[in-house]
Amino acid sequence: MGISIKEKYSLVCYLSLLHCTDQTFIVMAFNGKYELENQDNFGPFMKALGLSDEMIEKGNDLKSVSEIVQNGNHFKITVTTGTKVLTNEFIVGQETDVQTPTGAKMKAIINLEGTNKLVLKAENVTSITELTGDRLVNTMTIGNIVYTRQSKKIC
Q: Which one of the record's GO molecular function terms can you name (predicted)?
């Protein structure tokens, strides 16, 4: 008695999520595109980053899609909002330059907690991106201003 085609397909899909590096299996959980469904405290957070009132007003109503490509500990995150595209690449645990929505660069270290949480610590910004099922929740903090983005996986 063999396994069914459906079971074989499920196994192939599962194995394609795994990447072996240094004898450690890393789940490629983040790979995909995520569409912003809602956000809280966009304006005050972007103002604290230094974005102009005009840009905040324009950006508040635009659809946003985030694409995450994970290859082991290497991540490439591309956020497209209207015609603006913001791309950051990094290796987990290594200091990197991260571009902000204002175009400024800041030094940051991004760590992976478990298989589903990225934690960025920079000069005055903390960002936690957590994947739960097909939901991606990003919580960013500057001082006492907390900005939350909730997105759903679209592919």
A: fatty acid binding
Are 46 and 140 contacting, i.e. CB atoms less than 8 angstroms apart?
Answer: no
Name the CATH superfamily, with its identifier, for domain 26-153. Answer: Calycin beta-barrel core domain (2.40.128.20)
Q: Give the pLDDT confidence of 14-23 residue by residue, as tens digits.
A: 333 333 333 3
DSSP one-letter code for 93: T
H or E segment at 34?
strand 32-40
Judge residue 70's burial from the number of C-beta atoms within 10 Å of its C-beta, 0-12 exposed, 13-18 middle, 19 or more buried. buried
In DSSP terms, 134 is beta-bridged to none
Phi and psi at residue 89, in whole multiples of 5°? -125, 145
pLDDT value for 126: 93
Closest CA to 130 of 73, 79, 68: 68
Please identify every stretch of the chain with a pLDDT value under 50, giving residue numbers as ranges.
1, 3-26
Long-range contacts of range 46-53, CB-CB < 8 Å, 24 or more positions apart? 46/101, 46/147, 48/142, 48/143, 48/145, 49/100, 49/101, 49/102, 49/125, 49/142, 50/102, 50/104, 51/101, 51/102
Q: Round to whole Å and give the CA distance between 13 and 19.
A: 12
